[in-house]
Amino acid sequence: MSRLKLYDLDRSGNCYKMRLLLAMLGLSYQRMPTDILAGETLTPAFKRLNPRGQVPVLVDDEVVIWDSMAILVYLARRYGDANWLPDDPLGEARVMQWLAVSENELLYGLARARAKILFDRPYDLEQCHQDARPGLQVMEERLADNPWLAVDRYSIADIACYPYVSLAGEGNFSLQPYPAVMTWLQRVEEIDGWVPMAANAE
């Protein structure tokens, strides 16, 4: 049995980030489907893994990591190489800048717009779209002259930003004004090990 376990939810873009990186690193892992709506993240057993009561959570033998950004960093450092997370200060800082975009404009904009449409969450759709546009514009400007977000090759910056951008249509948000972003999505999908959102682990 794999030493790695991922507590996740199929429909979660943040969980999809973990599945993408695990697949691209060629790592086998055991998926532990966790139903948020059924309250499975609020049980005492789950809160011993993550006191915040959220997925994803990664268990690596005795190590437990929660939060999607923290898990990306852990996996890149533990099982990847400097291509995924540069070990020089400037390269690492550039990656972190895009992780911040993924957890701000893309989360509050695209992820919430999707949650409004698919799950009837109480968000203002137009406000979500407004919140998303600055992040997409920054991505468009960067990707107009560079193939990847942070450095000269793909990194966890691209993995962090990819899911909710690729799912933008599910939040009734059009990417047509962002042609470089759409080309970048295709580029990410050509990385060895890429899996679609619904793919299962080994």
Topology:
Layout: E1 4-8, H1 13-24, E2 30-33, H2 44-49, E3 57-60, E4 63-66, H3 68-79, H4 89-103, H5 105-119, H6 125-143, H7 156-166, H8 179-188
Parallel strand pairs: 1-2
Antiparallel strand pairs: 1-3, 3-4
Helix pairs in contact: 1-3, 1-7, 4-5, 4-7, 5-6, 6-8
Structure at a glance:
The protein is of the alpha+beta class. It is built from eight helices and four strands. A four-stranded mixed sheet has the order 2-1-3-4, covered by helices on one side.
Structural class assignment:
alpha+beta
Distance between the termini: 10 Å
Unreliable runs:
none
Q: Largest sheet at a glance? A: 4 strands, mixed
- Count the helices. How many? 8
**Which bin fits the share of residues in helices?**
40-55%
DSSP strand content: 5-15%
N-to-C order of helices and strands = EHEHEEHHHHHH
Number of strands: 4
Shape: globular
Q: Notable features of this structure?
A:
4 strands; 8 helices; globular; 202 residues; alpha+beta
Describe the structure.
The protein is an alpha+beta fold and 202 residues long. 50% of the residues lie in helices and 8% in strands. The chain has helices at residues 13-24, 44-49, 68-79, 89-103, 105-119, 125-143, 156-166, 179-188, and strands at residues 4-8, 30-33, 57-60, 63-66. A 4-stranded mixed sheet has the order 2-1-3-4, with helices on one face. Helix 1 (13-24) links the parallel strand 1 (4-8) and strand 2 (30-33). The longest helix is centred in the middle third of the chain and has 19 residues, at 125-143. The N and C termini lie close together (10 Å). The mean pLDDT is 95.
